[in-house]
Amino acid sequence: MTVFTRSAAEREAALLPELAALTERHRRACEPYRRILDAIGSAAPYARVADLPWLPVRLFKTHELRSVPEEQVFKVLTSSGTTGQVPSRIYLDRQAAATQPRMLAATLRAVLGERRLPMLIVDSRSVVRDPTLSARGAGVLGMMNLGRDHTFALDERGVLNHEAVKGFLARHGGKPYLIFAFTFMAWLHLRELGMDLSQGVLVHSGGWKKLAAQSVDSAEYRRQLGEECGLRRIHNFYGMVEQIGTVFLEGPDGGGLYCPDFADVVIRDPDTWQEAPPGVPGLIEVVSTLPTSYPGHVLLTEDLGVVHGVDDGIWPGKRFSVLGRLPRAEARGCSDTHGLAAA
Amino acid sequence: MLDVRFPAGPPVPVDDLLDQVTAGGRLSVGDERIRDFLSAFGRRLLRPTLSRRHPELGSLGFFLRRSELQRTIEGLRGEHVRVPRGLVFHIPPANVDTIFVYSWALSALVGNRNVVRLSPRAGTVAATIVKTLQETLDDADPIVAATQRIVCYDRSESITATLSTACDLRVIWGGDRTVDEVRKHPLPPYARDLAFPDRSSFAAVRATAWLCAPQATRQTVTEGFVNDSYWFDQAACSSPRTVYWVGSRADCHAARADFTTHLSHTVTERGWAVDAAMAVEKRVSTYGLAADGSAGAIDFHGNALANVTLATAVAAPRRWLGTGTFAHARLDSLTELVPLVGRRDQTMTHFGFPRAELLELARALAGRGVDRMVPFGDALSFHRVWDGVDLASEFTRLVTVSA
């Protein structure tokens, strides 16, 4: 049972009513959200998913946006992201908190199979032990649900622990196992290992900024890890705490990221805000039916992306790539409120 | 060690720099040698090759005309004897390249020795200014080079501390945080700070005046407003962020609609555009105002112009909302501004009010806020009275003589 089944047309037909209903639900239940929709004059009916009103994802850093009463909040997720110190705050009720790991598991089942695999984590155990859990730690912790016999490949100082990896491979190396890493960590450490990882399924995320600086793109990444470690099954994914549980997953052939059946992306031209056609880069809007307890079902990210094709890949639907992050807007002017203190 | 940008020279330890400046001869208020230097420098800035590329240098050159310098000195005449303060330490903002020249030039004009700390992040305009100053030095009296320094150093608490303990006046531009940071370093007991913290500004328009104005006037005024706002990405402390419309509901509605048409057109025609990052910034800030209940309506005219209709005039935002984002509110009369104005408010750009009404407002405000009232188009023009302070006067002391 996989969640990569819907063609673009089927997806549009299935998601539109669900997302429109979520829009109305959040409009009723979340006062700040209603005020935003009123101010921009957004009202039903919505004819297409691309017509639904989007929220800039950064609003979850600046505002408390939830659609459930405070006493029903079961869990508050926070993430600092990369630019500011102010974290996003995502409010989950019991139901949303239960749904998100279930849908994450369903999504990754497409590449991991039905059973929990032994799991090698290219990180230190300390990232999940830190009481003030970092975004990285939270990411690792979320993924740990999907594996068993968790082995951390790095010691507490962040140095490769060859013995631990050797032991893991001795126990599990003969059959498929899961390797989870942040994109750059996998690149940095797996090649250094010099071990045969050919039964491994590498699932990685976290951005390409450092790799782009070394002129390593997705194709080169896959090629080198294949050559040097025997890794044949490599899957990047894209997701964010503001749409927890929803990940866009790279297909087996590396031809781009695909959307699970309950989600989609809309690439927007930042000049016209209209949907950009395939091949034309723009800002990535992510839509998902999972955010029921907060108005995060239609979000404009600050990531740039491009749709390569629709219904033309190994899985149905849109096939896209993330091209990088939009720089933070800076202004001239005479105050130092934009981080320009002297002295 | 600090880099010495003007007069160009090798890096020196801060103590040596202070020794050099202190040793370098005495200047008087309105010293002819400085006047000659400043007006020669101003003439160079007005050369078309420079001022066309950097219009802000043209404004600066205009400010440094000999007649203007004369006016400034004459304005200081009075019963008492004016004398320089001594050594003035200037800390200008990193992101407005010309401020340091206004601050330094006025201080030099009234006979001070000056050390200006130029930010390492200062832009190309600052570099052009320093180069032009250096060129001007060739024909100048040696006392200019002996008493004036523009230096550059990366964040160094110890250099800032040493310069602070040596100065008679410290001038801090560039926002609340900078002021707080710099104030951690003590001054000598007799010295004082002149601080220019974060400010914000607004515009006021009488709706009937707008509606009755000839088309050509409305166009000129709009162009002035565009310059006031877009030049420094609307982040300059004197750029308007809120526009108050004064008049009846119907008049204000009609005037604002017509103004928006002119504004949108002018912004497009002048080629003011914002990039994707700024476009997103504006969405974040305006949606945020809506979420707070401050904004009743938001409308976008392309990415370069966003209008926010405030739910109430009290909700006028003071913070920067992204280039080309204007909050609008309606008032029945100009005096309704009085309770709305706060200490942070600096410049009121205005259209359609007689001078008497503005004077009345200034008196009614009684120091709550607003230091300048200028017509649309003059928001960014530097004046020797800035933020309520007569700079030339502040840069001097008075000696009373009774016989």
From TrEMBL, chain A:
Single biological process term from Gene Ontology: bioluminescence
Pfam families, per database record: LuxE
SUPFAM superfamilies (UniProt xref): Acetyl-CoA synthetase-like (SSF56801)
Acyl-protein synthetase LuxE domain mapped to chain residues: 23-337
UniProt GO molecular function: long-chain fatty acid--protein ligase activity
Coiled coil segments of this chain: none
Highest taxon, organism lineage: Bacteria
Gene3D superfamilies: N-terminal domain of ligase-like
Cross-referenced InterPro entries: ANL_N_sf, LuxE
Protein name: Acyl-protein synthetase
Organism of derivation: Nonomuraea glycinis
